[in-house]
Amino acid sequence: MAVQVYGVNHVVIEVDDAQKAVEFYSDVFNLKMLRGGEGAAWCQLGEHQFLAIFEVEDVKPDRMKHFGIMVRDEAQVEEVRQKITKKYGLTLEPELGCDFRDPWGNRIQVVDLHDESLVWLLPYREIQDLGISFSDLPTAKLE
User: Fold this and answer.
1) Total-model pTM
2) If DSSP states are collapsed to H, E and C, what string results for the chain?
């Protein structure tokens, strides 16, 4: 029997201060804290995934490795852009719409539902609530 992957369970980032990282990610993305302590924290990232934050002594930013966070629409992407640039003084990566490095050098890409193919979005409750199904895919559009 072939292995069937259902998605990504979690993403891990390294920081030098887990509490400050929780505050940043909670503020920018409104993430709910699941648990934490002793240099580690876990935040809910969507319905079935989580962001694991671990303190390390020597943070080493990656060059191209990154993860993407999907938000509802372009207005929410813009809200993230404004918060990370105005409040936190972070710089957007010039090639992409909302690609940035958090204060610890972790690269994040923010996209909205319209950036994704409907077939990948079907598991999300918000898409299901719209009544979209596989039989609707050729003509379905997100409004």
Assistant:
1) 0.75
2) CCCCCCCCCEEEEEECCHHHHHHHHHHHHCCCEEEEECCEEEEECCCCCEEEEEECCCCCCCCCCEEEEEECCHHHHHHHHHHHHHHCCCCECCCCCCEEECCCCCEEEEEEHHHCCHHHHCCCHHHHHCCCCHHHCCCCCCC
